[in-house]
Amino acid sequence: MRQAIKLLLAIVIVIATWPVIMGAPASASLSKAVDSSNFFNSMNFGLGIILGLAGFVVVGSIIFAGVKLASAQGNPQARTQGFIGLAVAFIGGWIVYRCLYMAGWIAGFGG
């Protein structure tokens, strides 16, 4: 189980850093200046991947909470869990949207 978690974490780290790694010029070193437009293009690509994954998680959470609510069948505890799940999923979607807004605002500084 721990090995699967470590493997999943390594895959997530590689996917998150892939655009930055591939966008760097072959002759780049720490002492040379990095082209900021190339960096921001790479980060925009990475941001699109991360927000796409977050969107799938939000949609999956809404579907899961909706199924939980639909299958409550008069059970007040399951009904409450369904409503709380829907509320948390929508709040998560709002947070993802605000992260996109803030990333665009920050990108305006360097672009």
Features:
0% strand, mainly alpha, 111 residues
Characterize the largest beta sheet: strand count, sense, and whether it forms a barrel: none
Q: Report how far the terminal alpha carbons are from each other.
A: 43 Å
Structural class: mainly alpha
If you compute it from the alpha carbons, what radius of gyration comes out, rounded to the nearest whole angstrom?
20 Å
User: Which whole number gives the mean pLDDT?
Assistant: 78
H-E order: HHH
Poorly predicted regions are none
> How much beta, percentage-wise?
under 5%
Helix content: over 70%
Q: Please report the number of helical segments.
A: 3
Q: How many E-type strands?
A: 0
Shape estimate: flat
Describe the protein.
The protein is mostly helical and 111 residues long. It contains three helices and no strands. It has helices spanning 2-23, 36-70, 76-110. Helix 1 (2-23) packs antiparallel against helix 2 (36-70) and helix 2 packs antiparallel against helix 3 (76-110). The longest helix has 35 residues, at 36-70. The protein is flat, with a radius of gyration of 20 Å. The model has no long low-confidence stretch (mean pLDDT 78).
